Amino acid sequence: MEYQAVIMAAGRGSRMTDLTHARPKCLLPICNRPMIWFSLKMLENAGFEEVIVVIHEQFRAEVAAIPSKYGLNIKLDIACLPKNEDFGTADSLRLVKDRIKTDVLVISCDLVCDIPLHNVFDLHRTHQSSVTALFSQSSPEVMSTAVPGPKTKFKQERDLVGLDLQTPRLVFLVSEADLTSENEEELSIRKSVMKHFPQISVQGNLLDAHLYVIKKWVCDYIAENRSFTMLKGEVLPHLVRKQFIKIQRKKNEKELPNADVSVVSLNTTNRDICSFLVDVEEEEKIRSYSVWNDHRGDLRGPYQDHNIRCFAYVAKEGFCLRANSLSNYCELNRQVIKRWNTMFPNMEITPPVSKAQVGTDCIIGETSQLSDKCSIKHSVIGQGCNIGEKVRITNCIIMDNVTIMKETTLQGCILMDNSSIENSCDLKDCIVGHTVHSNCKSTNEVLVDADRLLEI
Amino acid sequence: MSKSGSEVLKQEDVVLAVLIADSFSIRFAPVTDSKPKALLPLVNRPMIDYALESLLLSGVQKTFVYCVAHADQIRQYLKESKWMRSVSPMSIEVISQSPDDCRSLGDSLRDIDGKSLIRGDFILMSADVISNVQLIPILEEHREKRKTDKGIVMTHIFKKSFPGHRSRSAEEELVLAINPTNGRILNYQQTTNLKKLSFPLEMFKEHGLVDLRYDLVDTHISICSPVVLPLFSDNFDYQTWGDFVRGILINEEILNNTIYYHQLEGSYAAHVSNVPMYDAVSKDVIQRWAFPLVPDLNRSDTTPRHTLSRHNVYKQPGVTLAKESVLERDVAVGENSKIGERTFVTQSVIGSRCTIGNDVYINNAYIWDNVNIKNNCRIEVALIADGAVLNEGVEIGRGCVIGPGVVLAAGTKIPDNTRLMAHPPKCDNDFETSDEEEGNASLNPYVVKPFSADSVAYVYQRPVEEDSDAESLIDELWGLDIDEDSESEEDEDEDEADNDEEEEHEEEVDVGDLPEDMNARSFYNEVLESLQRGYEEKIKGDNLVLEINSSKYAYNVTMKEVNMLVIKAMLSLPSVMTKAATGTNEDWVALRPILQHFLPVMRNYLKNNQSMLDSLEALEEFGVHNSHFVKSICKVLHFLYGEDVLSEDAILEWYTNPPNDPSALKTIRKTVEPFITWLEEAEEESSEESD
């Protein structure tokens, strides 16, 4: 086994709380399948037979049932977090550190992508990369800008990714949010870095897929270094910066702490990153004997003689989107419907037999009942739904067991499990979680039962 | 190129070039005191010849040569050369201006604008550029771009050359931010003296894709739209090309002007900006990188062609080589020069009519015309100008420039990086005699110092410019092993980077229990800064208190935090200032004057029992995280007690309270034990006394 895979599925979905109070983020449906199914499917397609899933313990049973329910052969090794505790991705990785024996692929459960993963692994393998990250260049054209729920100013999180033009090296990585929060108007780069990498391409429109291939020693480092909580926000920028340090080889450092470091501070300080590196000397020897070089223009050895190396795989084509916000979640639903047949061949979706007008870009659960005179366009309808006469549904996501009575018009709405809508309502861009009474007209609202919120 | 038919071409159709025959710098002084830079020989040919040749080869039809310093000499030279003959396919017009009226590139372009000579696109080039670039395609490209971008004012030409390459001029290092999709320049920075490069965030937000290029070299060739000239006229502060680019980029949104870059592929261009670059370019010409601008294809009619033999050895007619003399490799020798017996020459250029004696060693030297070098001289990495005489056994150190007409007595040894001239510098009217940047020079009189008794040589001292330190340093790197230098510098850089990070860490770890609260953290940093400054500049305590109080309000921290953080900041001051955390008594030695200085500040904050307890708590926390401090904690307590900053009651109360951190019990409490017992005893005594 060369690589292990970990799915981080304990995210709270803090940018889509209106949806996640009823179902955890990883189980929110995308085209009638739980979000995590897409990650599992992608790993299965990439050849993984087993995957570690980090999840909150109350959802264990539900997640464990997914492979059998949807016909996946992948084996789940579920690691549970205590209920209601927030763990960052690095914390989660620390939690499963004993199960990690090799280099590891870490993905987040909200990723839907059809980029062939072997490319990322190839890059990682070829360059003995410490961390390889996947970025996607092509952002699918956004089909609709309207987002259900109250209008909020949502800013897409962007990163500034600095890539070497000659090699796929990741030279720097800063998130725009970090820079603006610190009120810095400038991005500064050391001249010594530019000497090593005289051609840097700074890309501001790449999508970080939050998919990382991480070397085993880096996992150990993260496990040891408790100050890290997030992979993306902390570990990755840290490693990218550490690429340029010189390795000081003090072999005894591990055993003999310096005399003037007190016992107390030793417990709080962490071991130097270089002491985690494995096989450095051997690798340096190989590099010095080899005639191969990854760059030209100077007399330095391959990889600029760096032992810590971060690489980025930038996918030029292929679909890649993360459901990390409400708007992305809606977009993802629309996009996946469009691409279903190319992304998942041999998995035809058969709509239930009915005389209703159903557009081609719709997915409807088999056990749902559609009346004859309703029309459905660009929408997803879950299982066990009941849709009345003269109902018009456009651009909606309707989860399971929803009842919609006659003569209702829905546009751009999300209807949560077990919600129902009575006669002649007209809802636009709403999120519905309970019963909406007759003749209701709303735009951009969250219609969720307050009592039920408390129950949960 | 030359169209048949004598129809008068419209000016727009003629390919125009402006050649600025002055570099507005004193990099070549004292050589340029008597001769314009454009006429200095580069591999036995005046530099302006190369520039005109490359314009001609590109198909330029009309060139304005703009001369400032020694304009008469350039005019004279051109008059006698082939360039001004009627058969020349390129017509040349010489414009001259007195050095008083024109002191920069900006001035000269303003002058050209005033004369309204140019109405179409033109090529702007410096006369000290050696290039074999075909400029017409780039001009076409420039015109093509105008179809999509009306605001294009300039396409500047860059050559790729990685850090460490000899064709990079250390003085002109630059970083460009460009838009790779259309080649627009978004940001331009001179990086010579910088350690960190900063780019505005806006730029990255606006353009999704930005390339940062540190591997480019400015060739000093640009294709300009006619609007460039009025732009210079409108902005009197534009002096150099860099000013212009920065100005255009800053006013981009208002004027909507844009600058593009062009990267040379496979052709050669270099700018002879200083002596090390002169060295590099000469080698490039000898090693045929600038083909067809090579010594054996010399089309000049003033100097004959060289013949090429193996190992890039070029000889003009009439060269006499005595027996056992060696021209090893990359050597050019001018006509009628004589080289004596057993003389060894490598990687050098020797001008016309030179006489070189026996057993001379010449390595990496540039010897111009009519130089007389006697036996047993040793020259390594040096430039020797016209008519110099080196008597027997002269040794010239690395990086020297020997001015025209200098005579060196037998056996003289010239130290490295010396510049000599034949005439004593004139203080009164060096305005006229010195070179191009006289303005500055007149303010800083040269130091008159004859070099040695029998020689005709005076040390040239560069007038001190405001920002010359670094520049002259770089200039003096000539002949030194630059590679090694830059490498070590780099290592320093890296070390520094390392340290920086470590420092960050240390700070985080050392101070330990800093509240997680960002406010308190920034407050602490601010206090630390104020205190450091206060200590270094000996600012009065009251003012510091004011400063700290204003920080307190700015960051909204509680009084308890203020007390604790101020104390912590004071304690960490010695290690912050010296960056060394040494153990033992030295700590106390360093700390004592600091505490002494800040006594008024402490008195201000530690007024009641609670605040004293806070400060003691801070002391303890600091001790927990800085083991070396533990040893001096007793002394600090004693000192503060002695100065009545801390009251006895507070100390005793603190001692009886359990410590926040259990590990403090073993270390700190133990160390202070003797002091506490002493205190208690003293108290008993005093109470006994009072009884």
From TrEMBL, chain A:
UniProt domain Nucleotidyl transferase: residue ranges: 5-135
GO molecular function, one term: guanyl-nucleotide exchange factor activity
GO CC annotation terms, alphabetical: cytosol; eukaryotic translation initiation factor 2B complex
Subcellular location: Cytoplasm, Cytosol
Keywords, alphabetical: Cytoplasm, Initiation factor, Protein biosynthesis
Span of domain EIF2B subunit epsilon/gamma LbH: 355-437
Biological process terms in GO annotation: cytoplasmic translational initiation
Role played: Acts as a component of the translation initiation factor 2B (eIF2B) complex, which catalyzes the exchange of GDP for GTP on the eukaryotic initiation factor 2 (eIF2) complex gamma subunit. Its guanine nucleotide exchange factor activity is repressed when bound to eIF2 complex phosphorylated on the alpha subunit, thereby limiting the amount of methionyl-initiator methionine tRNA available to the ribosome and consequently global translation is repressed.
UniProt cross-references to PANTHER family, sorted A to Z: TRANSLATION INITIATION FACTOR EIF-2B SUBUNIT GAMMA
Family from the record: Belongs to the eIF-2B gamma/epsilon subunits family.
Assembly and oligomerization: Component of the translation initiation factor 2B (eIF2B) complex which is a heterodecamer of two sets of five different subunits: alpha, beta, gamma, delta and epsilon. Subunits alpha, beta and delta comprise a regulatory subcomplex and subunits epsilon and gamma comprise a catalytic subcomplex. Within the complex, the hexameric regulatory complex resides at the center, with the two heterodimeric catalytic subcomplexes bound on opposite sides.
Protein name: Translation initiation factor eIF2B subunit gamma
Automatic annotation (TrEMBL), chain B:
Region Disordered: start-end pairs: 420-439, 479-514
Family annotation (InterPro entries): ARM-type_fold (IPR016024), eIF-2B_epsilon_N (IPR035543), eIF2B_epsilon (IPR051956), Hexapep_transf_CS (IPR018357), LbH_EIF2B3/5 (IPR056764), NTP_transferase_dom (IPR005835), Nucleotide-diphossugar_trans (IPR029044), W2_domain (IPR003307)
Signal peptide residue numbers: none
A GO term, aspect molecular function: translation initiation factor binding
Pfam families in alphabetical order: LbH_EIF2B, NTP_transferase, W2
SMART domains cross-referenced by the UniProt entry: eIF5C (SM00515)
CDD domains: eIF-2B_epsilon_N, W2_eIF2B_epsilon
Gene Ontology CC entries for this record: cytosol; eukaryotic translation initiation factor 2B complex
W2 domain boundaries: 517-689
Acidic residues biased stretches: 430-439, 481-514
Record family assignment: Belongs to the eIF-2B gamma/epsilon subunits family.
Assembly description: Component of the translation initiation factor 2B (eIF2B) complex which is a heterodecamer of two sets of five different subunits: alpha, beta, gamma, delta and epsilon. Subunits alpha, beta and delta comprise a regulatory subcomplex and subunits epsilon and gamma comprise a catalytic subcomplex. Within the complex, the hexameric regulatory complex resides at the center, with the two heterodimeric catalytic subcomplexes bound on opposite sides.
Protein name: Translation initiation factor eIF2B subunit epsilon
Organism listed in the record: Daphnia pulex
